[in-house]
Amino acid sequence: MNEIVGSHDLLLVTLDTLRYDVAQELAAAGRIPNLARHLPGGGWERRHAPGSFTYASHQAMFAGFLPTPAAPGPHPRLFAARFAGSESTADGTFVYDTPDLVSGLAAVGYHTVCIGGVGFFNKQGPLGSVLPGMFQESHWEPEFGVASPTSFEAQVACAEKVVAALPGERRLFLFVNVAALHQPNWFHLPGATREAGDTRESHAAALEHVDRHMGRLLAAAGSRRPCFAIVCSDHGTAYGEDGHTGHRIGHEVVWTVPYAHFFVDEAR
């Protein structure tokens, strides 16, 4: 990462609540072609989330603790604050001297931008302002939120404007929290109804919906210079497994998440 930081733009996309099993099934079935063409080997890496709900997980990720590989470690991290005795800081780790990754990247010249999705990014109160407040520039509007069937298209349009407005010489760290997979997601499944509610199938349909527009986001992120992208979930969610619904619980479908990182160079 010490060779990438400073030479590349950076993109972090969290597909909020996306389950590993659903993500992997859709990749294997060819149902998310725009994402799958960037996934190493065409599939997702199985990892463990750093938190069981959005706020906790993003606080950890912004501190450099991305989802952890599911195999036994320790696993070297891409980013880390300088911390004596850290077993996951390696030679290739980008180490910063600030409390979090966002300010660490700003300190080396990156313009940091947040395009929020779920309520923890809505800036409508003190709690919803903590995470976007880490960034130099942040955006949220109701069209980006969980209740909007076109939330991701609106977020992508915002990202395109952000990229177009930034001076070419300025490095960019763009973060997008994708709300489309979060409940309610029933409206992404043809024939589903509000009364029937969300299901594992509507969760999958929401990922297909996101994939249809993901190409535009990646093209924008890679339009200025080569971009290093991280696409992952912050946690999964339950749809009736062992009687559980939702997240903020210690269930396998919540803790196990898909992860990928790759280079995007759409401009060349």
UniProtKB/TrEMBL annotation:
- What is the protein name for this chain? Sulfatase-like hydrolase/transferase
Q: Name one GO molecular function term.
A: hydrolase activity
Q: NCBIfam families attached here?
A: fam_STM4013
Give the domain of life.
Bacteria
Tell me the InterPro entries matching this sequence. Alkaline_phosphatase_core_sf (IPR017850), STM4013-like (IPR047838), Sulfatase_N (IPR000917)
The cross-references to Gene3D superfamilies, in alphabetical order and at most eight, read: Alkaline Phosphatase, subunit A (3.40.720.10)
The Sulfatase N-terminal domain sits at 10-251
Give yes or no: UniProt keyword Ribonucleoprotein. no
Keyword annotations for this protein, in alphabetical order, are: Hydrolase, Transferase
Instruction: List the top taxonomic levels of the source.
Output: Bacteria, Bacillati, Actinomycetota, Actinomycetes, Kitasatosporales
Coiled-coil features, chain-numbered ranges: none
Known Pfam families for this protein? Sulfatase (PF00884)
